[in-house]
């Protein structure tokens, strides 16, 4: 049975947006550098996953979290360049969450095994994003709750169905929502800027578990 024709048409539209996105990025020095940095981090994550022999299970768990970030990055890039700006926010937020978790593990290496072995119900409480952010902010002496604000932003515009999220569905302010892929330079820029920001956060928190 052939794939439905409408799904083929949808993919054709995605490819048209993809080409427009590539042209816009290659014409913009900043966006080009952002994408190059993201690719560099993905390359490093792959290196550690494939070529760095872990010394224990803790490092293996960290490497698998790195693989999760790698796949999130691939999904985010595909969605952004294909014109699904709001949907790209979901894997982008996951990178942020995973980066926070890795940073939390760095505060006490024993937390990795605890995270692995604790029952799920208890894990959801002891390793909740709210608790992790609180511990990290206290460690760093942060009082502005910037980690929470970042998480809240991605939740509001992408992860949760909200009125604020509708802005990511409109080609321009006040316009009707668009179903399917569409090309908007401002949204392309904003989503890539957000992605490279969480990419660097995730990488910085990943790399400390591996010594030369």
Oligomer: single chain
Structural class: mainly alpha
Please tell me what the overall shape is: globular
On the 0-100 scale, what is the average pLDDT? Answer: 94
- H/E series: HHHHHHHHH
Biggest beta-sheet profile: none
The residue fraction in helices comes out at over 70%
Q: Taking Cα atoms only, what radius of gyration do you get, to the nearest Å?
A: 19 Å
Total helix count?
9
Bin the strand percentage.
Answer: under 5%
Number of separate structural domains:
1
Query: How many beta strands in the DSSP annotation?
Result: 0
Distance between the amino and carboxyl termini: 53 Å
Detailed description of the structure:
With 212 residues, the protein is mostly helical. It has one domain. Helices cover 74% and strands 0% of the residues. It has nine helices and no strands. The chain is globular. 29% of the residues are buried.
How do the strands and helices of this protein lay out in sequence?
Layout: H1 5-26, H2 29-51, H3 57-81, H4 85-107, H5 110-117, H6 120-126, H7 129-140, H8 146-159, H9 185-207
Question: What is shown here, in short?
Answer:
The chain is mainly α and 212 residues long.
What descriptive keywords fit this protein?
212 residues, mainly alpha, 9 helices
């Amino acid at each position: 049975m052939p794939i439905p024709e409408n799904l083929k048409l949808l993919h054709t539209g995605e490819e048209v947006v993809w080409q427009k996105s590539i042209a816009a990025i290659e014409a913009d020095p900043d966006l080009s550098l952002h994408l190059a940095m993201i690719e560099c981090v993905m390359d490093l994550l792959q290196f550690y996953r494939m070529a760095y022999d872990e010394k224990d299970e803790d490092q293996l768990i960290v490497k698998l979290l790195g693989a999760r970030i790698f796949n999130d990055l691939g999904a985010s890039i595909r969605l952004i360049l294909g014109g699904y700006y709001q949907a790209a926010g979901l894997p982008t937020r996951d990178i942020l969450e995973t980066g926070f978790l890795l940073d939390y593990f760095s505060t006490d290496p024993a937390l990795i095994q605890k995270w692995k072995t604790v029952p799920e119900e208890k894990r959801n409480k002891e390793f909740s994003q709210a608790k992790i952010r609180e511990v990290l902010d206290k460690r760093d002496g942060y009082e502005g709750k910037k980690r929470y604000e970042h998480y809240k932003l991605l939740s509001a515009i992408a992860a949760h169905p909200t009125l604020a999220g509708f802005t990511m569905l409109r080609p321009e302010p006040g316009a009707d929502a668009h179903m399917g892929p569409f090309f908007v330079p401002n949204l392309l820029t904003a989503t890539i800027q957000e992605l490279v920001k969480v990419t660097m956060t995730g990488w910085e928190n990943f790399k400390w578990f591996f010594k030369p």
